[in-house]
């Protein structure tokens, strides 16, 4: 089936589908004529469009064929013309050979013409040289340069003609060079004068900007002549004497040298005579550079050609020269001078007070840092070492001052609420805060290093304090009359420990970044600091209470004796003595006061129970045992009343004594096991020896009965699970 037949078939199928769509209802048959007319109109429109398109295509093809015919005719004409030109040029090579003599005569004629034209200048060279020198000395640089260009032109043209003559002797060239030697001297003299002007650019441009413009015009002329000479060399291999002068390069070098001299020439007080010399110097440099760059932006910009990019160029010069100068200075810096340098280089220099000043209208970012990364790292390491050495010295001196205060004849300072303290925590953390505040604006990495170093040395200070405090305690208890304020300084030490921890947390919150907190080494070091001061607090509390309990030792020894059964002196003395010491303990900060009271309570309970279990008395009958148990309960209430004056959490330790008294006053030995079960449930760490001695104290049990009860308790422990938490019994021998 042909393509036309296929298209016709598809058309019929499409028409059938359209008819089915149009004639779906019976009422649509009435509109058949309308549908027919619509389709006829559409067909006519399509046929018209098709005819128009076909006609347009045919017109285009006819036009293209006509153009191709014209091109073919033109190509034939060009081919014929090229053939004619080729035939005409064949006669030229022989003609060139015939005219060689004429060419030589022409060259000779050109040389003669050049010589005649320059003859006047040649004879006037000495006068022109002197006149040019005079103009230079008078500052008439444009006249001087025009005269110099005329002299150089005469010399260079004669030298060029000599260069073209292959047979010319070297003596003739040397003769010309010698004759025009003063011209080169004049050029050097003018160059020297321009250098002098450019070296004073920032001063001259404020008063006589035309002088700068004149010098720059001369430089640009010379640059143009340099380019012409370079092009001529490519053609003839001849370069005039003294070319290229490269005065633009010279000008930039002079400007850079003037910048370097200005920076190096800026001086302040000697290092030894003024500790703030570096700060003053850097501020002076900042003001100097900022003022110079303002002049460059406002005055030099209009004077210099645009392609000099003079503002950017000057910024680069100041940046490079200052960078070199600061790097040289950095090698001799020490201590806080390093921080001053780093802070200035990292913050002040690139900031709005200097290179990013809006008045400059330029972006200093492409210049980069004024100190190289390796120089900054070297300074940071040097400062870190300095701080490390200072920390060792500061901590040692602070501890020495503390030790002197401990042995002084005056009490420690107190705050507005009467809490004793010494200056050590504040002094140490003020030093640390100052160091961290300084480094915070320099580098986060350096700040973190100093922070960890600070934590390490505060921890070390805590360890040294522990050793010093232990020595102080030993010395004090040898002769308690020497150190009058031992108790007061132990209280101050307890408060100091709390202050150290508080300031450490403040430091952590202020300077530690979130990412730093998750580093195991940093966290471990901080935890070590907290642990050291917790141990120091515990030691201080132990020494503080040890002094009090030394006074109470005889009275604890009187407990549970025959004398104790009929006397209240011991417990009253214990309560009064403790109350007296607790009055001093009120100078403790709230947390420490509660801590020391609870520690004292535990000591009282352990000493009391230890006295009960020392077998100093054995009751003969139930009445004595009951009376003793009631006395123990009464004394326990007295102790509770004492401790309740200073803290609310007092029941747990003292309840140990009451639990033991219940075992004592139990009349029925058969019910004794129940009391022991209760005791074991409350205090699972009570030992068999404790139980044995407690039962012995009753006086109504034989040794075999006691062994049987203890054996029964052992079996009970083995069969039951007791809480692992320790009570006071693990502290009782």
TrEMBL record:
<dbReference type="InterPro" id="IPR048359">
    <property type="entry name" value="EXOC6_Sec15_N"/>
</dbReference>
<feature type="domain" description="Exocyst complex component EXOC6/Sec15 N-terminal">
    <location>
        <begin position="38"/>
        <end position="155"/>
    </location>
</feature>
<dbReference type="Pfam" id="PF06046">
    <property type="entry name" value="Sec6"/>
</dbReference>
<protein>
    <submittedName>
        <fullName>Exocyst complex component 3</fullName>
    </submittedName>
</protein>
<dbReference type="InterPro" id="IPR042532">
    <property type="entry name" value="EXOC3/Sec6_C"/>
</dbReference>
<keyword id="KW-0268">Exocytosis</keyword>
<dbReference type="Pfam" id="PF20651">
    <property type="entry name" value="EXOC6_Sec15_N"/>
</dbReference>
<dbReference type="GO" id="GO:0051601">
    <property type="term" value="P:exocyst localization"/>
</dbReference>
<dbReference type="InterPro" id="IPR010326">
    <property type="entry name" value="EXOC3/Sec6"/>
</dbReference>
<dbReference type="GO" id="GO:0000145">
    <property type="term" value="C:exocyst"/>
</dbReference>
<keyword id="KW-0813">Transport</keyword>
<dbReference type="GO" id="GO:0006887">
    <property type="term" value="P:exocytosis"/>
</dbReference>
<comment type="similarity">
    <text>Belongs to the SEC6 family.</text>
</comment>
<dbReference type="GO" id="GO:0000149">
    <property type="term" value="F:SNARE binding"/>
</dbReference>
